[in-house]
What does this fold into?
Amino acid sequence: MKLTFLGTNGWFDSPTGNTPSAVLETEKYYIIFDAGFGLAKADQCIKTNKPIFLFLSHFHIDHICGLHVLPKFHFKQPLTIFGSRDLKKVFKTFVNRPYAASLDYLDYKVNLVPLKEGKYAKPFEFSCKKLQHHDLAFGYRLHLDGKVVVYSSDTAMCENDFLLAQDADLLIHECAFMPGETGTWGHSNPEEVATLAAKAKVKKLVLTHFGAARYSSLDIRKNAESVARKIFPNTIAAVDGMVLEI
It folds into this structure.
């Protein structure tokens, strides 16, 4: 499997990167995590007609603003979008005139699939759990090609975050806060995430969704990576364009 980070900022685009999106290419599928403005680069990764599945963590604008660029793509296969209970309501409002082109404008089919917390067997094995954020946000645990990939954004530390991460081959986790920082909105700092990875016996941790106002340079991200590695050595701070083989 190959994972390409298209956007690694939280909140807004800046010289450090776009808002969050990443593409995981597996043997049979393309999996997209979130739809920040990084999503505009997804067609650089999607080169075949394998099915495409987009998992939205929640509906804050930095995670869905890239839906505005869906008309840029000319997929031959359908795009299936997963999200929490209000998925169709959000699309009716946000991915519609006067804010954006409606789904009817696209030359490929889009399927909207609202989810509840729980386990799913199709189109592949995955589960979703509610995380601790200011508004409803889901974390996802996917079983693909004999491996487990977990995506958690946005969240403070919570039991569901740990349950999703247990024994994962790869944990992709938000890191909006600076080392030592805490807050009430529902985000994490590098020490917390590294401690979670160690406790959950994760094989590899990738930090992403760095708060753009706090992490104003990539050097600051590297410092967060260093802080996390003191607790969990197999940690990487993601940057836009990074490609990982899993």
Q: What stands out?
A: DSSP finds five helices and 16 strands in the chain. Residues 2-245 form a domain with the Metallo-beta-lactamase; Chain A fold (CATH 3.60.15.10). The longest helix spans residues 218-229. The radius of gyration is 17 Å.
